[in-house]
Amino acid sequence: MDTSQLIKRNDYCWEIPVQGEMRVPAVIYADQALIEAMDDKVRQQAVNVAMLPGIVQAAYAMPDAHWGYGFPIGGVAAFDPAQGGVISAGGVGFDISCGVRTLLTGLKKAEVMAEQRALADMLFHRIPAGVGSTGGVHLNHQEMDAMLKDGAQWAVRRGFGREADLERTEEQGCMAGADPAQVSDHAKQRQKDEMGTLGSGNHYLEVQFVSRIFDPKIARVYGLEEGDVVVSIHCGSRGLGHQIGTEFLKRMAIEASQHGIKLPDRELACAPIDSPTGRSYLGAMRAGINCALANRQILTHLTRKVFAEILPQADLRLLFDVSHNTCKLESHEIDGRKRKLFVHRKGATRAFGPGHPAVPEALRAVGQPVIIGGSMGTASYILAGTAESERLAFSSACHGAGRAMSRHAATKRWRGREVMDELAGRGILVRSPSQRGVAEEAPGAYKDVAAVVKAADAGGLAKTVARLEPLVCIKG
User: Fold this and answer.
1) What residue numbers bound the domain in which 326 lies?
2) Which of 13, 65, 239, 317 is the most exposed place for a label (fewest CB within 10 A)?
3) What is the pLDDT of residues 313-338, one digit of tens each?
Protein backbone atom coordinates (compact mmCIF):
# COMPACT_ATOMS: atom_id res chain seq x y z
CA MET A 1 0.00 0.00 0.00
CA ASP A 2 1.18 3.51 -0.80
CA THR A 3 1.65 5.07 2.64
CA SER A 4 2.06 8.58 1.22
CA GLN A 5 -1.74 8.90 1.25
CA LEU A 6 -1.94 7.97 4.95
CA ILE A 7 -1.34 9.89 8.16
CA LYS A 8 0.73 7.87 10.62
CA ARG A 9 -0.88 8.33 14.05
CA ASN A 10 1.57 6.00 15.77
CA ASP A 11 3.65 2.93 14.91
CA TYR A 12 0.49 0.78 14.66
CA CYS A 13 -2.22 3.17 13.51
CA TRP A 14 -2.69 4.87 10.13
CA GLU A 15 -5.46 7.25 9.11
CA ILE A 16 -7.00 8.18 5.78
CA PRO A 17 -8.53 11.61 6.45
CA VAL A 18 -11.99 12.57 5.30
CA GLN A 19 -11.95 13.49 1.61
CA GLY A 20 -14.42 13.51 -1.26
CA GLU A 21 -17.63 11.74 -0.23
CA MET A 22 -16.22 10.15 2.92
CA ARG A 23 -18.40 10.82 5.98
CA VAL A 24 -15.75 9.70 8.48
CA PRO A 25 -12.04 8.90 8.31
CA ALA A 26 -10.72 5.40 7.67
CA VAL A 27 -8.27 3.87 10.13
CA ILE A 28 -5.94 0.92 9.52
CA TYR A 29 -4.14 -0.86 12.37
CA ALA A 30 -0.80 -2.30 11.20
CA ASP A 31 2.93 -1.86 11.59
CA GLN A 32 5.10 -0.49 8.80
CA ALA A 33 5.80 -3.86 7.20
CA LEU A 34 2.17 -5.00 7.29
CA ILE A 35 0.79 -1.75 5.89
CA GLU A 36 3.32 -1.70 3.05
CA ALA A 37 2.47 -5.32 2.16
CA MET A 38 -1.29 -4.67 2.05
CA ASP A 39 -2.98 -4.48 -1.33
CA ASP A 40 -3.93 -0.88 -2.14
CA LYS A 41 -7.48 -2.19 -2.62
CA VAL A 42 -7.72 -2.41 1.18
CA ARG A 43 -7.28 1.37 1.35
CA GLN A 44 -9.86 1.94 -1.38
CA GLN A 45 -12.36 -0.40 0.20
CA ALA A 46 -11.96 1.25 3.61
CA VAL A 47 -12.54 4.64 1.93
CA ASN A 48 -15.67 3.28 0.24
CA VAL A 49 -17.06 1.99 3.54
CA ALA A 50 -16.49 5.43 5.06
CA MET A 51 -18.95 6.85 2.48
CA LEU A 52 -21.95 4.79 3.63
CA PRO A 53 -24.93 6.53 5.28
CA GLY A 54 -25.04 6.64 9.08
CA ILE A 55 -21.50 5.42 9.64
CA VAL A 56 -20.10 6.46 13.02
CA GLN A 57 -16.57 7.44 14.12
CA ALA A 58 -14.49 5.71 11.42
CA ALA A 59 -14.21 2.78 9.04
CA TYR A 60 -11.61 0.40 10.48
CA ALA A 61 -9.30 -2.26 9.06
CA MET A 62 -7.51 -4.78 11.25
CA PRO A 63 -3.81 -5.83 10.95
CA ASP A 64 -4.78 -8.93 8.91
CA ALA A 65 -6.86 -6.90 6.43
CA HIS A 66 -6.91 -7.88 2.78
CA TRP A 67 -9.13 -7.20 -0.21
CA GLY A 68 -12.63 -8.68 0.06
CA TYR A 69 -16.14 -8.41 -1.36
CA GLY A 70 -17.22 -4.79 -0.78
CA PHE A 71 -15.80 -4.44 2.73
CA PRO A 72 -12.17 -5.41 3.22
CA ILE A 73 -11.76 -8.68 5.08
CA GLY A 74 -10.67 -7.45 8.47
CA GLY A 75 -13.12 -4.56 8.21
CA VAL A 76 -15.15 -3.03 11.06
CA ALA A 77 -17.82 -0.34 10.80
CA ALA A 78 -20.71 0.78 13.02
CA PHE A 79 -23.93 2.43 11.89
CA ASP A 80 -26.49 4.46 13.84
CA PRO A 81 -30.11 3.75 12.84
CA ALA A 82 -31.09 7.14 14.27
CA GLN A 83 -28.89 8.78 11.62
CA GLY A 84 -30.11 6.77 8.64
CA GLY A 85 -27.60 4.00 9.23
CA VAL A 86 -27.48 1.03 6.91
CA ILE A 87 -26.87 -2.69 7.13
CA SER A 88 -24.75 -4.32 4.44
CA ALA A 89 -24.69 -7.98 3.50
CA GLY A 90 -21.21 -7.34 2.10
CA GLY A 91 -20.18 -6.02 5.52
CA VAL A 92 -21.01 -9.39 7.07
CA GLY A 93 -19.82 -11.64 4.26
CA PHE A 94 -21.07 -14.82 2.65
CA ASP A 95 -20.04 -17.14 5.49
CA ILE A 96 -22.28 -15.64 8.14
CA SER A 97 -20.93 -16.14 11.68
CA CYS A 98 -17.83 -17.97 10.56
CA GLY A 99 -15.93 -18.28 13.81
CA VAL A 100 -13.69 -20.33 16.06
CA ARG A 101 -14.23 -22.27 19.25
CA THR A 102 -11.42 -23.67 21.37
CA LEU A 103 -11.80 -26.68 23.67
CA LEU A 104 -9.54 -27.52 26.60
CA THR A 105 -8.71 -31.24 26.72
CA GLY A 106 -6.97 -31.59 30.08
CA LEU A 107 -4.22 -33.51 28.25
CA LYS A 108 -0.52 -32.78 27.80
CA LYS A 109 1.32 -32.95 24.49
CA ALA A 110 3.09 -36.24 25.26
CA GLU A 111 -0.22 -38.03 25.88
CA VAL A 112 -1.59 -36.94 22.51
CA MET A 113 1.60 -37.63 20.55
CA ALA A 114 1.40 -41.28 21.62
CA GLU A 115 -1.92 -41.51 19.74
CA GLN A 116 -1.36 -38.77 17.14
CA ARG A 117 -1.81 -40.85 13.99
CA ALA A 118 -4.84 -42.75 15.30
CA LEU A 119 -6.41 -39.46 16.40
CA ALA A 120 -5.78 -37.81 13.02
CA ASP A 121 -7.25 -40.76 11.13
CA MET A 122 -10.37 -41.08 13.26
CA LEU A 123 -11.10 -37.34 13.31
CA PHE A 124 -10.80 -37.32 9.52
CA HIS A 125 -13.12 -40.32 9.28
CA ARG A 126 -15.74 -38.88 11.66
CA ILE A 127 -15.68 -35.13 10.81
CA PRO A 128 -17.22 -34.46 7.37
CA ALA A 129 -15.08 -31.95 5.47
CA GLY A 130 -14.72 -30.55 1.98
CA VAL A 131 -16.84 -28.93 -0.72
CA GLY A 132 -20.43 -30.15 -0.55
CA SER A 133 -19.75 -32.34 2.46
CA THR A 134 -22.79 -33.72 4.27
CA GLY A 135 -23.12 -35.16 7.74
CA GLY A 136 -25.28 -37.53 9.72
CA VAL A 137 -27.76 -34.86 10.82
CA HIS A 138 -30.72 -34.46 8.46
CA LEU A 139 -33.25 -31.74 9.18
CA ASN A 140 -36.86 -31.61 8.09
CA HIS A 141 -38.59 -28.24 7.73
CA GLN A 142 -39.72 -28.07 11.35
CA GLU A 143 -36.31 -28.98 12.76
CA MET A 144 -34.59 -26.57 10.37
CA ASP A 145 -36.66 -23.67 11.67
CA ALA A 146 -36.07 -24.74 15.28
CA MET A 147 -32.31 -24.81 14.66
CA LEU A 148 -32.35 -21.40 12.95
CA LYS A 149 -34.34 -19.95 15.85
CA ASP A 150 -32.35 -21.41 18.75
CA GLY A 151 -28.82 -22.14 17.47
CA ALA A 152 -26.50 -24.05 19.79
CA GLN A 153 -29.26 -24.19 22.40
CA TRP A 154 -31.25 -26.32 19.93
CA ALA A 155 -28.18 -28.53 19.39
CA VAL A 156 -27.66 -29.09 23.10
CA ARG A 157 -31.36 -29.96 23.54
CA ARG A 158 -30.91 -32.55 20.78
CA GLY A 159 -28.03 -34.16 22.67
CA PHE A 160 -25.12 -32.49 20.85
CA GLY A 161 -23.06 -31.31 23.78
CA ARG A 162 -23.42 -29.97 27.29
CA GLU A 163 -25.45 -27.20 28.88
CA ALA A 164 -22.18 -25.74 30.20
CA ASP A 165 -21.06 -25.13 26.59
CA LEU A 166 -23.68 -22.42 26.18
CA GLU A 167 -22.23 -20.21 28.91
CA ARG A 168 -18.94 -20.13 27.00
CA THR A 169 -20.55 -19.41 23.61
CA GLU A 170 -21.13 -15.93 22.22
CA GLU A 171 -24.80 -14.93 22.79
CA GLN A 172 -25.11 -17.99 25.07
CA GLY A 173 -25.44 -20.01 21.89
CA CYS A 174 -28.58 -18.31 20.57
CA MET A 175 -28.75 -15.04 18.63
CA ALA A 176 -31.93 -13.21 19.59
CA GLY A 177 -34.10 -11.81 16.81
CA ALA A 178 -33.50 -14.64 14.35
CA ASP A 179 -36.41 -15.05 11.94
CA PRO A 180 -36.39 -18.34 9.99
CA ALA A 181 -39.24 -17.02 7.82
CA GLN A 182 -36.78 -14.57 6.23
CA VAL A 183 -34.52 -17.43 5.10
CA SER A 184 -35.41 -18.72 1.64
CA ASP A 185 -36.45 -22.30 1.00
CA HIS A 186 -33.41 -22.61 -1.28
CA ALA A 187 -31.05 -21.65 1.56
CA LYS A 188 -32.73 -24.14 3.88
CA GLN A 189 -32.53 -26.85 1.24
CA ARG A 190 -28.79 -26.29 0.88
CA GLN A 191 -28.33 -26.69 4.62
CA LYS A 192 -30.58 -29.64 5.46
CA ASP A 193 -27.77 -32.22 5.23
CA GLU A 194 -24.79 -29.96 6.05
CA MET A 195 -25.07 -29.62 9.82
CA GLY A 196 -22.01 -30.92 11.63
CA THR A 197 -19.67 -30.39 8.66
CA LEU A 198 -16.52 -28.31 8.27
CA GLY A 199 -16.92 -27.30 4.64
CA SER A 200 -13.91 -26.16 2.63
CA GLY A 201 -11.61 -23.17 2.17
CA ASN A 202 -9.78 -22.04 5.28
CA HIS A 203 -11.99 -24.02 7.65
CA TYR A 204 -10.38 -26.60 9.88
CA LEU A 205 -10.40 -28.67 13.02
CA GLU A 206 -7.00 -28.62 14.72
CA VAL A 207 -5.48 -30.42 17.66
CA GLN A 208 -2.95 -27.95 19.07
CA PHE A 209 -0.61 -27.55 22.03
CA VAL A 210 0.19 -24.46 24.05
CA SER A 211 3.78 -23.64 23.15
CA ARG A 212 4.08 -20.36 25.04
CA ILE A 213 2.23 -18.36 27.67
CA PHE A 214 2.57 -14.57 27.37
CA ASP A 215 0.27 -13.52 30.22
CA PRO A 216 0.24 -16.07 33.07
CA LYS A 217 -2.52 -14.32 35.02
CA ILE A 218 -5.03 -14.32 32.16
CA ALA A 219 -3.90 -17.80 31.06
CA ARG A 220 -4.73 -19.20 34.50
CA VAL A 221 -8.25 -17.77 34.29
CA TYR A 222 -8.62 -19.27 30.80
CA GLY A 223 -7.30 -22.65 32.04
CA LEU A 224 -4.17 -22.65 29.86
CA GLU A 225 -0.66 -23.88 30.71
CA GLU A 226 2.37 -24.58 28.53
CA GLY A 227 2.22 -28.09 27.09
CA ASP A 228 -1.58 -28.29 27.32
CA VAL A 229 -3.45 -29.72 24.34
CA VAL A 230 -6.51 -27.91 22.98
CA VAL A 231 -8.82 -28.40 20.00
CA SER A 232 -9.90 -25.49 17.80
CA ILE A 233 -12.80 -25.65 15.34
CA HIS A 234 -13.09 -23.01 12.60
CA CYS A 235 -16.20 -23.01 10.40
CA GLY A 236 -19.43 -21.15 9.78
CA SER A 237 -22.96 -21.35 8.38
CA ARG A 238 -22.06 -23.35 5.26
CA GLY A 239 -24.43 -23.24 2.27
CA LEU A 240 -27.21 -21.49 4.16
CA GLY A 241 -25.10 -18.46 5.03
CA HIS A 242 -23.75 -18.21 1.51
CA GLN A 243 -27.24 -18.31 0.04
CA ILE A 244 -28.52 -15.62 2.42
CA GLY A 245 -25.61 -13.38 1.46
CA THR A 246 -26.09 -13.97 -2.26
CA GLU A 247 -29.81 -13.25 -2.21
CA PHE A 248 -29.70 -10.14 -0.05
CA LEU A 249 -26.73 -8.57 -1.82
CA LYS A 250 -28.73 -8.78 -5.04
CA ARG A 251 -31.85 -7.38 -3.40
CA MET A 252 -29.99 -4.55 -1.67
CA ALA A 253 -28.17 -3.54 -4.86
CA ILE A 254 -31.45 -3.29 -6.77
CA GLU A 255 -33.17 -1.26 -4.04
CA ALA A 256 -30.30 1.09 -3.07
CA SER A 257 -31.34 3.92 -5.41
CA GLN A 258 -34.92 3.77 -4.07
CA HIS A 259 -33.52 4.74 -0.66
CA GLY A 260 -31.36 7.51 -2.11
CA ILE A 261 -28.20 5.51 -1.44
CA LYS A 262 -25.32 6.14 -3.81
CA LEU A 263 -23.07 3.09 -3.75
CA PRO A 264 -19.34 3.77 -4.28
CA ASP A 265 -19.08 0.06 -5.15
CA ARG A 266 -21.97 -2.24 -6.07
CA GLU A 267 -20.49 -4.86 -3.76
CA LEU A 268 -21.27 -2.51 -0.84
CA ALA A 269 -24.99 -3.05 -1.45
CA CYS A 270 -26.89 -2.08 1.68
CA ALA A 271 -30.30 -1.05 2.98
CA PRO A 272 -31.45 1.30 5.75
CA ILE A 273 -31.58 -0.67 8.99
CA ASP A 274 -35.20 0.30 9.57
CA SER A 275 -36.36 -0.52 6.01
CA PRO A 276 -38.30 -3.70 5.17
CA THR A 277 -35.23 -5.15 3.43
CA GLY A 278 -32.96 -4.12 6.32
CA ARG A 279 -35.24 -5.78 8.87
CA SER A 280 -35.63 -8.86 6.67
CA TYR A 281 -31.86 -9.23 6.31
CA LEU A 282 -31.37 -8.83 10.07
CA GLY A 283 -33.82 -11.67 10.71
CA ALA A 284 -32.16 -13.92 8.10
CA MET A 285 -28.60 -13.01 9.12
CA ARG A 286 -29.34 -13.72 12.78
CA ALA A 287 -30.76 -17.10 11.73
CA GLY A 288 -27.47 -17.65 9.87
CA ILE A 289 -25.57 -16.87 13.08
CA ASN A 290 -27.60 -19.52 14.88
CA CYS A 291 -26.87 -22.00 12.10
CA ALA A 292 -23.12 -21.48 12.56
CA LEU A 293 -23.36 -21.76 16.36
CA ALA A 294 -25.33 -25.01 16.04
CA ASN A 295 -22.88 -26.32 13.45
CA ARG A 296 -19.85 -25.77 15.70
CA GLN A 297 -21.77 -27.30 18.60
CA ILE A 298 -22.46 -30.50 16.65
CA LEU A 299 -18.81 -30.65 15.55
CA THR A 300 -17.81 -30.34 19.20
CA HIS A 301 -19.99 -33.34 20.05
CA LEU A 302 -18.44 -35.40 17.23
CA THR A 303 -14.94 -34.42 18.38
CA ARG A 304 -15.66 -35.44 21.97
CA LYS A 305 -16.84 -38.86 20.79
CA VAL A 306 -13.54 -39.41 18.95
CA PHE A 307 -11.46 -38.42 21.98
CA ALA A 308 -13.60 -40.65 24.20
CA GLU A 309 -12.57 -43.65 22.08
CA ILE A 310 -8.86 -42.88 21.70
CA LEU A 311 -8.01 -40.74 24.74
CA PRO A 312 -10.84 -41.39 27.22
CA GLN A 313 -9.08 -39.46 29.97
CA ALA A 314 -9.69 -36.23 28.04
CA ASP A 315 -12.35 -33.76 29.19
CA LEU A 316 -13.12 -31.40 26.34
CA ARG A 317 -14.44 -28.30 28.12
CA LEU A 318 -15.22 -25.25 26.02
CA LEU A 319 -12.98 -22.23 26.57
CA PHE A 320 -14.98 -19.94 24.26
CA ASP A 321 -16.74 -19.67 20.91
CA VAL A 322 -16.57 -16.36 19.05
CA SER A 323 -17.65 -15.34 15.54
CA HIS A 324 -15.87 -13.04 13.10
CA ASN A 325 -18.47 -12.43 10.33
CA THR A 326 -21.44 -10.70 11.96
CA CYS A 327 -23.48 -7.55 12.44
CA LYS A 328 -24.69 -6.99 16.00
CA LEU A 329 -26.57 -4.31 17.89
CA GLU A 330 -24.22 -3.11 20.62
CA SER A 331 -23.89 -0.18 22.99
CA HIS A 332 -20.79 1.95 22.44
CA GLU A 333 -19.69 5.32 23.75
CA ILE A 334 -19.45 8.07 21.13
CA ASP A 335 -18.46 11.58 22.21
CA GLY A 336 -19.18 10.74 25.83
CA ARG A 337 -22.64 9.29 25.18
CA LYS A 338 -23.73 5.64 24.92
CA ARG A 339 -25.38 4.87 21.59
CA LYS A 340 -26.96 1.74 20.16
CA LEU A 341 -25.04 0.88 16.99
CA PHE A 342 -25.09 -1.91 14.43
CA VAL A 343 -21.47 -3.07 14.38
CA HIS A 344 -20.35 -4.92 11.25
CA ARG A 345 -17.33 -7.18 11.71
CA LYS A 346 -16.15 -8.94 8.57
CA GLY A 347 -13.10 -11.05 9.25
CA ALA A 348 -12.79 -9.27 12.60
CA THR A 349 -13.33 -10.68 16.09
CA ARG A 350 -15.37 -9.15 18.87
CA ALA A 351 -12.98 -8.29 21.72
CA PHE A 352 -14.90 -7.08 24.78
CA GLY A 353 -12.66 -6.01 27.64
CA PRO A 354 -12.64 -6.78 31.38
CA GLY A 355 -15.94 -6.22 33.15
CA HIS A 356 -18.14 -6.33 30.08
CA PRO A 357 -21.46 -8.03 30.96
CA ALA A 358 -21.47 -10.09 27.73
CA VAL A 359 -18.28 -11.89 28.82
CA PRO A 360 -18.96 -15.13 30.78
CA GLU A 361 -18.80 -14.47 34.51
CA ALA A 362 -15.85 -16.84 35.06
CA LEU A 363 -13.78 -14.88 32.50
CA ARG A 364 -15.16 -11.37 33.01
CA ALA A 365 -12.37 -10.05 35.23
CA VAL A 366 -9.74 -10.49 32.49
CA GLY A 367 -11.78 -9.92 29.32
CA GLN A 368 -13.22 -12.01 26.50
CA PRO A 369 -11.05 -14.64 24.81
CA VAL A 370 -10.15 -13.58 21.26
CA ILE A 371 -9.24 -16.65 19.18
CA ILE A 372 -6.89 -15.98 16.26
CA GLY A 373 -6.47 -18.81 13.76
CA GLY A 374 -3.24 -19.37 11.89
CA SER A 375 -2.68 -21.61 8.87
CA MET A 376 -2.20 -25.37 9.15
CA GLY A 377 1.57 -25.03 9.43
CA THR A 378 1.76 -21.99 11.69
CA ALA A 379 0.72 -20.97 15.17
CA SER A 380 -2.67 -19.79 16.32
CA TYR A 381 -3.14 -17.46 19.28
CA ILE A 382 -5.44 -16.79 22.21
CA LEU A 383 -5.76 -13.09 23.03
CA ALA A 384 -7.92 -11.21 25.53
CA GLY A 385 -10.11 -8.21 24.82
CA THR A 386 -9.02 -4.87 26.29
CA ALA A 387 -10.90 -1.86 27.65
CA GLU A 388 -8.87 0.29 25.23
CA SER A 389 -10.25 -1.56 22.20
CA GLU A 390 -13.70 -0.10 22.89
CA ARG A 391 -12.38 3.33 21.99
CA LEU A 392 -10.07 2.19 19.20
CA ALA A 393 -12.36 0.00 17.07
CA PHE A 394 -15.69 -0.77 18.75
CA SER A 395 -14.07 -3.59 20.76
CA SER A 396 -12.74 -5.44 17.73
CA ALA A 397 -9.52 -7.24 16.83
CA CYS A 398 -8.08 -9.28 13.96
CA HIS A 399 -9.31 -12.81 13.20
CA GLY A 400 -6.35 -14.62 11.65
CA ALA A 401 -3.22 -14.21 9.60
CA GLY A 402 -4.96 -12.89 6.49
CA ARG A 403 -4.16 -14.09 3.00
CA ALA A 404 -1.00 -12.85 1.31
CA MET A 405 -1.84 -14.40 -2.08
CA SER A 406 -4.93 -15.68 -3.87
CA ARG A 407 -5.96 -19.32 -3.84
CA HIS A 408 -5.30 -19.48 -7.59
CA ALA A 409 -1.75 -18.18 -7.09
CA ALA A 410 -1.20 -20.67 -4.27
CA THR A 411 -2.13 -23.67 -6.44
CA LYS A 412 0.38 -22.51 -9.05
CA ARG A 413 3.13 -22.43 -6.46
CA TRP A 414 2.42 -25.49 -4.30
CA ARG A 415 1.16 -29.05 -4.62
CA GLY A 416 -1.03 -30.46 -1.87
CA ARG A 417 0.93 -33.66 -1.39
CA GLU A 418 4.20 -31.75 -1.06
CA VAL A 419 2.66 -29.45 1.57
CA MET A 420 1.36 -32.41 3.58
CA ASP A 421 4.70 -34.22 3.42
CA GLU A 422 6.61 -31.10 4.48
CA LEU A 423 4.28 -30.58 7.45
CA ALA A 424 4.46 -34.25 8.42
CA GLY A 425 8.24 -33.83 8.55
CA ARG A 426 7.64 -31.12 11.14
CA GLY A 427 5.35 -33.35 13.20
CA ILE A 428 2.04 -31.93 11.92
CA LEU A 429 -0.40 -34.47 10.46
CA VAL A 430 -2.80 -33.04 7.87
CA ARG A 431 -5.86 -34.91 6.64
CA SER A 432 -8.00 -33.55 3.82
CA PRO A 433 -10.28 -34.88 1.06
CA SER A 434 -8.77 -32.37 -1.39
CA GLN A 435 -5.12 -32.04 -2.44
CA ARG A 436 -6.05 -28.82 -4.23
CA GLY A 437 -7.63 -27.48 -1.04
CA VAL A 438 -4.40 -28.14 0.85
CA ALA A 439 -2.40 -26.28 -1.81
CA GLU A 440 -4.80 -23.32 -1.66
CA GLU A 441 -4.29 -23.14 2.09
CA ALA A 442 -0.51 -23.62 2.10
CA PRO A 443 1.09 -21.78 5.03
CA GLY A 444 3.09 -19.61 2.62
CA ALA A 445 -0.15 -18.21 1.16
CA TYR A 446 -0.76 -16.33 4.41
CA LYS A 447 0.77 -13.36 6.19
CA ASP A 448 2.95 -13.88 9.24
CA VAL A 449 0.36 -14.47 11.97
CA ALA A 450 2.89 -13.56 14.68
CA ALA A 451 3.35 -10.12 13.10
CA VAL A 452 -0.42 -9.65 12.86
CA VAL A 453 -0.91 -10.58 16.52
CA LYS A 454 1.97 -8.34 17.60
CA ALA A 455 0.36 -5.40 15.79
CA ALA A 456 -3.02 -6.11 17.39
CA ASP A 457 -1.41 -6.28 20.83
CA ALA A 458 0.85 -3.25 20.42
CA GLY A 459 -2.03 -1.30 18.89
CA GLY A 460 -4.19 -1.95 21.96
CA LEU A 461 -6.85 -4.03 20.20
CA ALA A 462 -6.28 -7.18 22.29
CA LYS A 463 -3.69 -8.62 24.68
CA THR A 464 -1.65 -11.71 23.73
CA VAL A 465 -2.19 -14.59 26.16
CA ALA A 466 -0.99 -17.84 24.56
CA ARG A 467 0.47 -19.31 21.37
CA LEU A 468 -0.91 -22.60 20.03
CA GLU A 469 0.93 -24.84 17.57
CA PRO A 470 -0.72 -27.58 15.45
CA LEU A 471 -0.30 -31.32 15.89
CA VAL A 472 -3.25 -32.54 13.77
CA CYS A 473 -5.18 -30.57 11.16
CA ILE A 474 -8.39 -31.71 9.47
CA LYS A 475 -8.91 -29.51 6.37
CA GLY A 476 -11.86 -29.13 4.06
Assistant:
1) 3-475
2) 317
3) 999 999 999 999 999 999 999 989 99
